Amino acid sequence: MNRFKNKIALVTGAGSGIGRSTAVRLDQEGATLIIADINEDQLNETKNMLTNKASSAMVLDISDLEQTQACFQSVKKEYKTLDALINVAGILRFDNSHEVKIEDWNKILNVNLTGTFFMCNFGLPLLLESKGYIVNVSSTAALGSHAWTAAYSASKGGISAFSKTLAVEYGVKGLNVNCVCPASINTPMTKNPNLPKDIDTRLLKKIMPVDGVNRSPDDIASTIAFLASDDALHINGIDLRVDGGLLT
Asked: Would you identify the CATH topology of the domain 8-242?
């Protein structure tokens, strides 16, 4: 497939996991990419995987207002347009809800939710011009109950609600906004979960797919590529679960 030939796409969280897989997938389909991540070394590793020499990489903290604003000023200057914005960047930690520290709560909300808002807010003028696509990575934590993820679940629930607002508000202007809600994906973020001590192990069953198999980030990347392409032209404002039947 060559769905992204002559298309410009920006992918956050591209240094690893779902973000890296998404960048590689879009590159394979012909996209010119702006990949962003807070980790410069990992970002450069991803950049070296891309074949399109017109693509670029930028170190970016999406929770920083000035950095995100400068990001889109750079995109407009260098590429003139933007066809797809894919917000993957996020952080996760597990705590008993009564033990969540306010600094951890704020950090997770600032990165996951406010960072996604900043990216959409500054990206909207370019995306409205191109009648483009936004794909935000939410989570099954936004749709169901995941123990020990108070801040993370709140942030992802906010992303899903915010995305629906954008879908309705700007759908009449030709913009598509959707969420992917993954679960049970092998990524660096979930590899060593550092769960609280003395947990009730019965609750672990609620974060495993029905087939007991964790999937590759590539399986999410293919879903994102679909939602960011014209194949998804008539899909707007959804939370698309890619979870192996976890919430079924």
From this structure: Rossmann fold (3.40.50)
| Res 127: pLDDT | 98
Q: Where are the domains of the chain?
A: 8-242
Q: pLDDT tens digits for 138-154?
A: 999 999 988 999 999 99
Residue 211, burial from CB neighbour count under 10 angstroms (0-12, 13-18, 19+): exposed
228: tokens are 């960011």
Annotated catalytic residue 152: yes
What is the Rg, in whole angstroms, of the alpha carbon atoms belonging to the chain? 17
pTM of the predicted model as reported, rounded to 2 decimal places: 0.95
| Residue 99: burial class (beta carbons within 10 Å; 0-12, 13-18, 19+) | exposed
Which residue is associated with the tokens 């003139």? 80
Q: How many CB atoms lie within 10 A of CB 80?
A: 11
Out of 79, 133, 152, 170, pick the active-site residue.
152
**For the chain, which residues score pLDDT lower than 50?**
none
